[in-house]
Amino acid sequence: MTAKKVIGFIHLWLGLISGIIVVIVSITGCIIVFEKEIRSVTEPFQYVQTGKVLLPPSQLKKIVEERFKGKNVGTITYNGPGRSAVVNYMGMKMGSMATNIYVDPYNGQILKIKVMKDDFFRIILQGHYYLWLPKEIGKIIVPAGVLMFFFLLITGLILWWPKSRKQAGLSFSIRWGAKWKKLNYDLHNVLGFYAMLILLCICTTGLVMGYKWFGQGFYWLTSGGHQLKTTKKPMSKNPVLSDSLNNKADLVWAECLGRKPYVEETAFTFYYPEKKNAAFMVFYNPNKDTHYLRETWYFDQYSLKPLQGKGSGFEAGLYEKAGLGDKIKRMNYDIHTGGILGIWTKVLAFIASLISATLPVTGFYVWWGKRRKKSKATKAATVDREMSLV
Fold it and tell me: Keyword Transmembrane helix, does the record have it (predicted)?
């Protein structure tokens, strides 16, 4: 068996095994790419009339906790002038299963109550991450499917590579007027080639999130041999009886507004301490369309003294001061979803994901057509042998 036949065999069986996974992950990925844009049209409660004075965290927290007795607010996000604030009364523990309360940050009016487990995009995200299977099962299957697809792209390129100049001309264009079998073959080969580089980026960033060993290895490679450092959040010290957390939260909020201007593109997410030794944590994002520029600030919940986190990524340091490995790690999500350079990279990610959803289908038809052709040839040979014996 030649090397190319071995590669073809590997390509075939990886495609048959991972096909359904790739289709689901690709289609859900297409939807997730434009989540922000779709929400801006379908969720009018995200927008409010800009007022003169923002209500501080303590007042938004009080409004929500009075409405929902027995629930403690965990996070508050201020999304910029003219946008509603989002109060999460389940905190960080529930993650995407939390309940978000959209509140007018100028007058305190509750605009929308959204249980995130029922949110359309969270349902799509569950499919993208876990195929709507139990998390313990899905988090094993999906990364494995993505890893297989990664090798499918590489083996596909080897199989696509033209042997001659004449073949090269056919390898870059689709013969739209050809019969279905040839057209399907071109759709698989040519579209796969054009989308390959983008899909390799999407696969790589997905594997960084899906496999710890892959993320550590990729960081080692991009950082010049450095080890990925575990995130360590700073702790508050010397617990003492003092003002309530609400009063301290307002002081921290005032400090944050003093550090950075509250303008249209910015967002502040404020995390209340969950334990006695935890610190106030604030995410500041200067550009809501991306994530990699985000800054994380910590404040001692007793003294309000600024604290510094340790590790790689968002939790410590600024983007401008980060090394190459840390910068690429910060960009991972934005590269994965196509948001890294704005709308045009989103469009490219959408088209590439759409193509990747078709590749298992067109590839299956290529294999099925060859299988039927081989079966017919075998039957014909059998008939010829039988006739020769008559």
Answer: yes
